[in-house]
Amino acid sequence: MSTSSLPERSKVHRNKKKAQGKSIRKRKKKNRLRLLVKLMLYTLLVMLAGAGWLYLLPAGQSTRYLLADTLITTQHRHWAKYVIGETELQRRVAAYNEQFLQMGDERDTHTIATPPPAPATDSSTASAPEAKPLVEIEKITGSGYAGYMMTVHDPTKVRLGITGTAGSGEKVSHMVERTGAIAGVNGGGFADPNWKGNGFKPIGLVISRGKLFYNGLGGKTSTQIVGLDKQGKMIAGNYSLEELRDLGVQEAVTFQPRIIVNGRGLFKSDKDGWGLAPRTAMGQRADGALLFVVIDGRQPGYSVGATLYDVQQVMLEHGAVIAANLDGGSSTVLVKDNAIVNKPSSQYGERYLPTAFLVFEHPEQADIANIWEGLDPSQIDAGKKRSQ
After folding, report:
1. What is the 3-state secondary structure (H, E, C) of 202-235?
2. Tell me: the pLDDT tens digits for 371-383?
3. Which of 138, 175, 184, 216 has the fewest CB within 10 Å, making it most exposed?
4. What global pTM score does this model have?
5. Which residues make beta-bridge pairs with 161?
6. Residue 140: is its pLDDT beyond 60?
7. How many CB atoms lie within 10 A of CB 256?
8. Phi-psi sector, 199: left (phi>0), alpha (psi -120 to 50), beta
9. Three-state DSSP class for residue 243
10. CA–CA distance, 117 with 112 (Å, rounded to integer)
11. Which of 16-30, 271-285, 333-347 has the lowest mean pLDDT?
C-alpha cells in the first residue's frame, strides 16, 4: 500500500463527515422551523378558539363581563374598554348606578329584638349564664375568596369614628388605638382622584352621635346611607336628611348599594355582582347583632375577591335581614385589639380614610370630634398631599 494514499483517504473521510454534519444541522434547523411554525399555528388556533369562546358563547361572554366588571372596581377602570368596548363600558357603569339607586328605594321594615335584662340570681343556688363576648370573629371562605365575619352582639356599642387630622384621612388601626376602641372596620367612601386621594373628603353625609358632621350632598335631596339609630337598629337605603332626623339616625355614612332588605337578597345572580374585588359590608340579624363582612382580594393564591352577590349570600347564611355595601377595594380592613386581622390589598398597606365603624366597651366615653366643622365641602382639596 502506498503511504501517500493515507492522507488522501483521511481527507476524504473528513470531508464526508463535514458533509454529514452540515446535513444533520440543516435537518435540525428545518425541524426547529417546522416546530416553531406548528407552535405558532397552535397558538393562533388557541387564540381564535378563545376569542370565539369569549365573544360567541354564553359562558365566554359571562367571563368577559366578569373581567370587565372586575376592572371597573379598580383604578384601571379604563382598561375595561379593551374587553367590552368604550360604549359598552359607559353603558354598564350607568346601568350599575341606576340599579344601585333602585336597590335603595324599598322601605325597610325590619325590627330587632332587644334582650330583656338578665334576671337576678342567688349565687348560692344558681350561677348566671355565661355572657357572649361583645365581638366574635370567624374566618369565611368561598370560591376564590377568603375573609372574615365580625359579629357585634350589642349594636349600641358601635360608633362612627372620624379621622383626627385636619386635611388627612386616618388609618383604621390608628383610629382604633387613638379612640380606645376594641375593633374597627372601614366605613364610607371618599373623593379619591386618580386613586391618590388624601382620604379627607367624604362622599355624601357623615353623621356621628346624632350630629351632622359633614354634608357633601350639594344640590341633592337624598343619599344612600348605611348607619344605626338610637336603639342600634341598622338603617340602610335612600333617605333624605329630614327622614334621617325623623328616624333618629345616630351614626351613618353614604355608600351603596344596599344588598338585603326585609330579609330578601336584592342581587338575583352572580352575573350582576359587580366583578371580583375586596369587599366590606355591614348587616344585621333579627336579634340585633351586627355583622361586618370583610373579604380580601387582588391576591392570587390567597384571595382573588368576591362579587356583591357572594357577600349577599354570606350575609343571608349568617341570618342577616338587612345588609349594605361599604367602601371596599384597597380600603377594606378589619382591626381587632390594635392588630390588623385581614390582608389589605394595597401594596402600601392600610389606606388613609375619613370614617370607620368602631366598637367600644364604653361608647359613652369615646371622644369623637368633628374635624370638618366650619369647612366648606366644595373647598376641600381631596388630592392635596397628606401631611406626615
Report:
1. ECCEEEECCEEEEECCCCCCEEEEEEEECCCCEE
2. 999 999 999 999 9
3. 138
4. 0.83
5. 356
6. yes
7. 25
8. left
9. helix
10. 16
11. 16-30
Rounded CA gap, 58 and 54, in Å? 8
Residues ≥6 apart with Cβ < 8 Å to 206 = 160, 162, 188, 212, 213, 214, 252, 253, 254, 354, 355, 372
DSSP per-residue letters across 293-329:
EEE--SBTTTB--B-HHHHHHHHHHTTEEEEEEE--G
Distance of alpha carbon 218 from alpha carbon 378, whole angstroms = 8
Q: Which three cell numbers stand for residue 342?
A: 385581614
Who has greater pLDDT, 283 or 56? Answer: 283
Rg (CA), the chain: 30
Work out the average pLDDT over 14-23: 63
Around Cβ 6, how many Cβ atoms within 10 Å? 10
| DSSP symbol at 283 | E
Separation CA 347–CA 353 (nearest Å): 16
Region of residue 265 (phi > 0: left; psi between -120 and 50: alpha; otherwise: beta): beta
The residue to which cell 330578601 is assigned = 264
- Separation CA 357–CA 158 (nearest Å): 7
